[in-house]
Amino acid sequence: MVRNRLSSLPSFGGVLATVLSAWASLALLPLRLPGMELAGIAPDWPLIWVVAWSVKRTAWQGLIAGVTLGILQDALVNPGGGWWPSHALGLGVAGALTALLQKDRLIQEDFISVALIVFAMAAISETLMALQWSVLGHRPLGQIWLDHQRLTLASAILSSLWAPLVYVPLSRLWPED
Amino acid sequence: MTRFELLRRWWQRYTSQILGGVGVVALAVYLQTTQAWVLRELYRGLQGGRVPDTRLTDSRLQELETQVQELQIQNRQLQQLLNYQQKMPLATVATTVVGRSAGHWWHQIWVGEGSGKGITPGSVVLAPGGLVGRVLDVTPHTSRVLLVTDPSSKVGVMVNRSRAMGILVGQGTGQTVLEFFDKNPDVKPGDTIVTSPFSTIFPAGIAVGKIESIDWRAMPAPQATVQLYAPIERLEWVLLHNYGAKPALLAP
User: How high is the mean pLDDT of chain B?
Assistant: First the structure.
């Protein structure tokens, strides 16, 4: 596969729109609008963005995007000083796994399958968070895994419901090769 | 084809991807070291300037506030007579809540004033009803507040009636639990809870909530479920109180 290197470089407008949409997914996190909340939990917008980004990309690209957004979400959430669980692990794994799914061979329907992937990835990333909490030992174990059930269910349901709304415009933004 | 040539070709093909990936991650790490200062200020800028809605404070509240002020003045005069040393609050700022926690595992709020109004990390956050939490970090126009319902929040409190001491620990679900120090504390449902005079992080005597139920069989000492006075889930505006203490944030 030989490609002209200049034409393979993304356009400035495309890069800008990608960066802005990623920033928007972070800026939506502290917002709670009606319909965005289930038992006090909001959708995991960066996770939806990472899944939408990774569906038609390589595992490495998915990993890099997930780790980047995860680090930025840590900056918005984690208190300074000391070791706290990082969102980079969950989002990175979600990005890489989504890219490895080989979606075109397994699943046909476009945005319904994205909703399903988001549901599964929300469960995986929350589980990785719970594991980090367990290892770091800031909280009692029983409480962590009780919280995990509640958070995972609410986050997975809400995120997968909102996923098509994020995925459709983004998939127009990144046309297939 | 030599190994060197293979490497060169591979590099030519992936160089933009590798450099892009490394650059993006490095930028994210840099933003993180500044507590995402840029992201938070941008978010605050989009929210626009809102002033706290003082119409919510009804006449009864104003009457009570006047009474409290009167009592505080009297108290201060009496303390001066006794040569009682106490740090006076440095600044109190009223501000709106502009965002909730940006992660599922935390109970935090973002409020619309920061270091620009003299708020420092460790400032005490109050709402109508009483204690809400304390400031984790600040940017010029935002502060991040750790709520008392967060599992990593620990507040030294006491039962107002009997002076029984304990630690108020968040449960992550909007509930808080009071873990007593004493094996047999003098406490019953309905007792009011205030911050402890031995706390270095919070000023003494701030209203927190009231005892809902008590678990006498908890180990190593009894525990009580505390219902907070402040409506933590529906906060619209808060008071930031620069207490001037230098607390070790998030004591283990």
Answer: 81
Q: What confidence score (pLDDT) does residue B88 get?
A: 46
Task: Compare CB distances from A87 to B36, B103, B108 and report the shortest one's residue.
Answer: B103
What's phi and psi for B88, nearest 5 deg?
A: -85, 145
Record the tokens describing residue A142, joined without a space.
């029983």
Residue A107 lies in a domain: yes
Using an 8 Å CB-CB cutoff, list chain A residues near B146.
Answer: 79
**DSSP one-letter code for B114:** -
Q: Considering the domain boundaries, does residue A157 fall inside one?
A: yes
Q: Do B32 and A74 touch (CB under 8 A)?
A: yes
Q: Pick the more confident residue, A119 or B70.
A: A119
Cβ-Cβ pairs closer than 8 A, A with B, add up to 110
| B216/A68 Cα distance (integer angstroms) | 48
**What domain count does chain A have?**
1
How far off is chain A from B174, nearest CA to CA, in Å? 9
User: In terms of residues, how long is chain A?
Assistant: 177
Does residue A63 belong to any structural domain of this protein? yes
Q: Which of A38-42, B74-78, B144-148, B242-246 has the lowest mean pLDDT?
A: B242-246
Identify the pLDDT of residue A10: 65
Name the token pair of A30.
């502290």
Does A74 contact chain B (CB < 8 Å)? yes
Domain region containing A117: 39-173
| Domain CATH code at residue A146 | 1.10.1760
Q: Which domains does chain B have, with CATH numbers?
A: 3-47 (no CATH), 92-246 (2.40.10.340)
User: Cβ A147–B36 below 8 Å, yes or no?
Assistant: no
